[in-house]
Amino acid sequence: MRIALAQMRIETGRKSANMVRALSLIDKACDMEPAPDLVVLPECCDLGNLSAESADLVEPVGGTFAESLAAKAREMGVHVLAGLAERHGQAVYSAAVLFDVDGDVLLRQRGISIDSAADGGVVPGDRIQVKRTPFGTLGVQLSADLALDCITKCLRMMGASIVLAPCAWACEPGHEAEQLQRVQGCLARHAGSTGLSIVCVNGVGECDDATASSTVRRYGASLAYGPDGQALLVGPLNEEALLAVDLSSQAETSGGTRVSRGK
User: Fold this and answer.
1) What is the pTM of this model?
2) I need a labelling partner for 182 at 20 to 30 A (CA). Which of 120, 175, 176, 224 fits?
3) pLDDT at 260
4) Bridge partners for 110 per DSSP
C-alpha cells in the first residue's frame, strides 16, 4: 500500500483557501510515480482551529469542503482521508472522513480525547471502528487520541493492520524538537507493542487562537512507523511537503466495518 502524506499549510478560518490547497495537493500526489492508493490530509484541514470563533463555519459531513474532497477522490480514482470539523445538530466534532475511489464515505471517526477547555461546542466521539479495504484493514485515530494506547490496542484487536492519523500537533516556536521527540517516542512504543503500522500527517502554519497566551503553530514533521516500531519517514519541520511511504499489509478482499460503540 502506498500512502501520500499531504503535509499542507492550513490558514485558520480560511476554508476556501484551505480547500484549494488540499485539492491541489491531491492532484500532485496522484502525479507521483508510482501513484498512491491513499492520500491523507491533516486534522481540521478545513478550518485549522475548532473554537467559538470558527463554530459558525463548521459544516455537516456532506458540506462543500467534504463534497469537494469526495469529487476529487472520484475524479482521481484514489482514496482520501481528511481531518475535518463536523457539525451534527448543535454539536461540533473533530472528525476524520475516509472517501473511497467512488467518492463514497467508507469510514468516519470522531476524536475522543477532547480538551475540556475547548470552546465552540466541541464534544467527544463515542466509538471506534476499522474498515476492511483491498489493501488491508484500516483504523483511524485523531492526534490527541494517539496518546491513548488503549485505543490503538483496541483497533489492533478489531483487526486493523494500519492506523492512519490526521494530526494537529502544534507548539510555541522554538520548541519543535522537544515536542517531536515526545511524539516519536509515543508512536514507536505504540507501533512496536501492537505490531501496527502508524502513519501521521500534520499540518503547518500558525494557529490563530484568540484564547492562546502566545503564538502557537503547527510544525509539520509528519511521521510513519512500521510494525516493529522503527521510523519509516519523518517529514520536514515548518514547511509544506508532499511525502510518500510504502507499507506492507495483509490484503483483504471482503468489505465491512467493525464498530466498538460507547454508551
Assistant:
1) 0.92
2) 120
3) 38
4) 95
Stretches in the chain below the pLDDT threshold 50: 117, 250-263
Helices 149-157 and 176-194, packing angle to 10 deg = 30
CA angle 124, 68, 233 (to 5 degrees): 65
Bridge partners (DSSP) listed for residue 234:
223
* Nearest alpha-carbon partner for 118 in 211, 45, 207: 211
64-76 helix and 15-30 helix, angle to the nearest 10 degrees: 10
% of residues, the chain, pLDDT over 90: 78
Angle, alpha carbons 198-202-207 (nearest 5°)? 150
pLDDT at position 137: 96
Residue 63 buriedness (CB in 10 A; 0-12 / 13-18 / 19+) = middle
The β-bridge relationship of strands 136-140 and 197-201 is: unpaired
- The domain segmentation of the chain, as residue ranges, is 2-261
Do 70 and 61 touch, CB atoms closer than 8 A? Answer: no
pLDDT digits (tens, 9 = 90+) for 69-100: 999 999 999 999 999 999 998 888 999 999 99
Which CATH number is 2-261's, of 1.10.287.130, 3.40.50.920, 2.60.40.1080, 3.60.110.10? 3.60.110.10
What letter represents residue 2's amino acid?
R
